[in-house]
Automatic annotation (TrEMBL):
Pfam families: Mgm101p. It comes from Aspergillus campestris (strain IBT 28561). This is Mitochondrial genome maintenance protein MGM101. GO terms for cellular component: mitochondrial chromosome. The keyword Chloroplast does not apply. It is found in: Mitochondrion matrix, Mitochondrion nucleoid. Residues 45-57, 69-82 have a biased composition (Low complexity).
């Protein structure tokens, strides 16, 4: 049996189709068809592809009024566990105050007087003449000081000495009548002066400060300032509020000098006592 020759046109068409067939076979071989599994219930198989969840370590919230102390410990599996312990921070008393409200008695009696509100003994009777002579004695000019701006004053410790001579140590006291008020620059509080069990005067003291670290010192200065103001009602060193006495004192015991500030080199005029030299931070200008 003889074979007929393939026509030239048919041979050319077969050569064109052969590469496409091989490409389709190659693509079919690269694809992976999942093997169907027999399910007797007829339900669709569950999706077994899961994403592992990363465990999130618990965190300790940072308190609004404290810092966190971080302590690192090693666990059994070799990982580091961080334990954060809150530490309470001291509040800024320049913003929150001192919370020193005076104690109020629930049942005040004659033996238990509530000096935060009571005016017991005020103007009930004059003090004995011996005490009055000490309180009303003329101030010694040698004990009076003068500030650079010309204000004369008596150091507060000398008011305490006068009270001790008049009433004896323990015969007088200063009682707070309110809590301390702390502003951004000043501490103020109300006090009452009690002598021999009687209220004598009520005054509010004040003292400036420059940083929160100086507030405790300012509270003590506030107390001394209130004492000086209360002593005015007893007539102690009353000359310091007499304008004529002040002018005579300045003319006799003080002088004005031109000085230069050692730090900023600023020149000014200050008051000093005649028996005192110019001291730091000034030096006398020539």
């Amino acid at each position: 049996m003889s074979l007929r020759p393939v026509p030239r046109a048919l041979r050319a068409s077969l050569q064109v189709l052969r590469p496409s067939i091989s490409i389709q076979q190659t693509r079919s071989l690269t694809r992976t068809t999942p093997t169907p599994q027999f399910n007797p219930t007829g339900a669709s198989p569950p999706n077994r592809t899961t994403t592992p969840n990363k465990a999130t370590p618990p965190t300790t919230p940072t308190p609004s009024n404290g810092y966190r102390n971080t302590n690192t410990t090693n666990s059994a599996n070799g990982t580091n566990n961080t334990v954060e312990t809150p530490i309470k921070r001291t509040e800024n008393i320049s913003k929150t105050g001192l919370s020193d409200q005076p104690l109020e008695l629930d049942d005040p009696t004659a033996d238990r007087i509530d000096w935060t509100r009571s005016f017991h003994g005020l103007s009930a009777a004059p003090f004995p003449k011996e005490a009055a002579d000490i309180l009303l004695a003329e101030v010694n000019p040698d004990e009076v000081e003068i500030k650079p701006d010309g204000i004369v004053y008596l150091p507060e410790i000398k008011y305490r000495r006068i009270l001790n001579r008049a009433f004896g140590p323990g015969g007088w006291g200063l009682v707070p009548r309110s809590e301390s008020i702390v502003t951004p620059k000043t501490v103020t509080r109300e006090y009452a002066l009690v002598c021999n069990g009687r209220l004598v005067s009520v005054a509010r003291g004040e003292q400036d400060y420059f940083s929160p670290d100086g507030i405790p010192t300012a509270t003590e200065g506030c107390r001394s300032n209130a004492l000086v103001r209360c002593c005015k009602d007893l007539g102690i060193a009353s000359e310091l509020w007499d304008p004529r006495w002040i002018r005579r004192y300045r003319a006799q015991y003080t002088r004005e000098v031109f000085v230069e500030h050692i730090v900023n080199k600023r020149k000014s005029k200050i008051w000093i006592r005649k028996d005192d030299p110019v001291s730091y931070p000034w030096k006398e200008s020539k």
